[in-house]
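BUG-243 | component: ligand-complex export | severity: low

The export step for iron/sulfur cluster jobs runs without errors, but we want the raw record kept on the ticket for reference. Input record follows.
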Amino acid sequence: MNSVERFNRPPSPQAASLVFLAEIYESFQGEGPWAGTDSLFIRTSGCNLRCWFCDTPWTSWNPEGTQWTLDELARRIESSPAEHVVITGGEPMLAASLTELTELCRSAGRILTIETAGTVDRSVECDLMAISPKRPNSAPDDPHWRQRHEQTRDQPAVIRSLMQRYRSILKFVIDTDADVDDVCRYVDRIPEASADHVWLMPQARTRQELQDREDRVRKAAKRHGFHYSPRLHIAEFDSARGV
Ligand code: SF4
């Protein structure tokens, strides 16, 4: 079994009622069309990619977390005052019991976003599929992970399928001007995608990096008719975790 097959295999029956979470907390959405909305963040642990700029390495490079039962999660969701739930990662589309978790969120009346890199297709419930395709600018230096990352990160058929079935946006992390050109070429490859689906956001793990890049990325987004996505959580909390 190769690495892609291993990561994409269905969860075992024993794991069927458990979800491995790095953290769960209330905060505000920092990115995309619902930026600023109070949300309950459910962050799964584990990822099939290893972006060099990953801002949650405790879900990818060094995954950590605890197992939650669906009953525990149902109680946590019901007790949250937040109208929105964001299931993020790591790569949440890999998580055991994800379908059941999304059904829990919807039956609790929550507005649900799933944040995914778009490499794994699953049948889930959601109000917004926030897809962040990982481009060549994401590859890590580590030779082992670089090869695996490059084999896995680009799955246009998965992204097309998700966009056909769910209300979707495409979010791209921008580091250099060449990254913007790459986004333009990428969007041309996806028939379901138009400029209105695209949100550019600055590559940043710290408040300083965000400040250094946001003006340039905002202008690039305007030039191409894309949306600019703030990263309010980094602006507010810098690189702090779980906020
Ligand atoms: S896909 Fe997301 S969680 Fe996974 S390594 Fe890249 S940035 Fe980190």
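Assignee comment: Attached the raw record above. The two ends are 37 Å apart (CA to CA).
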